[in-house]
């Protein structure tokens, strides 16, 4: 921007540029007050930009805080779930140890294949020689006898 321009040069300027010049004695001089207003407007914009930038930084910090809190809560929930499963597994192991002790106290060898075979059934007979009851793994089971002596 020139400090002093002629009318022909002034006419070639855009409206925004013309706002910075004032006519004096047929010449157009750079208007210092108009420039001061523009500079004040720029500094106002800069203050507004800085304010919005600070708000953005605050919002980002809050978002990061929220995400960190959310991650910490999720991790605590996972640890709590793991602890519950661990306690359940420990209880199951204790129950298994108790069952093994019970088997050992009964004198049964768990590695013996004969120990896993079912016991033979005991059959009691009715006077007519019909099967009345039999015992197996589930205890005594009664069967209907078809003899007339009932």
Describe the protein.
This protein has helices at residues 7-12, 15-18, 32-105; strands spanning 4-5, 21-24, 27-30, 122-125, 131-136, 139-142. Strand 5 and strand 6 form a beta hairpin. It has three helices and six strands; from the N terminus they run E-H-H-E-E-H-E-E-E. Residues 137-142 have low confidence and may be disordered. 1% of the residues are buried. The chain has a three-stranded antiparallel sheet. Strands 4-5-6 form a three-stranded antiparallel sheet, with no helix packed on it. The chain has a domain at 118-150. With 150 residues, it is α+β, with helices and mostly antiparallel strands.
Number of strands: 6
Radius of gyration: 50 Å
- Taking the alpha carbons of the first and last residues, their distance comes to 129 Å
Proportion of helical residues: 55-70%
The amount of beta strand, in percent, is: 15-25%
Overall mean pLDDT score?
76
Structural category = alpha+beta
Please, what is the oligomeric state? single chain
Shape: rod-shaped
- Please describe the biggest sheet, giving its number of strands, its sense, and whether it closes into a barrel: 3 strands, antiparallel
Reading side by side through the largest sheet, how are the strands ordered? 1-3-2
What is the helix tally?
3
Order of helices and strands: EHHEEHEEE
Low-confidence segments: 137-142
């Amino acid at each position: 921007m020139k400090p002093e321009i002629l009318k022909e040069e002034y006419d070639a300027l855009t409206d925004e540029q013309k706002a910075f010049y004032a006519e004096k004695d047929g010449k157009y001089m750079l208007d210092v007050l108009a420039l001061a207003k523009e500079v004040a407007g720029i500094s106002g914009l800069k203050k507004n930009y800085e304010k919005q930038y600070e708000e953005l930084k605050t919002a980002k910090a809050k978002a990061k805080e929220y995400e960190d809190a959310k991650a910490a809560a999720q991790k605590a929930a996972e640890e709590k779930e793991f602890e519950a499963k661990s306690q359940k597994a420990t209880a199951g192991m204790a129950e298994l140890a108790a069952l093994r002790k019970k088997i050992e106290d009964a004198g049964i060898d768990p590695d013996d294949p004969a120990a896993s075979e079912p016991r033979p059934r005991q059959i009691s007979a009715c006077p007519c020689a019909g099967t009345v009851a039999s015992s197996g793994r589930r205890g005594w089971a009664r069967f209907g006898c078809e003899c007339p002596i009932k």
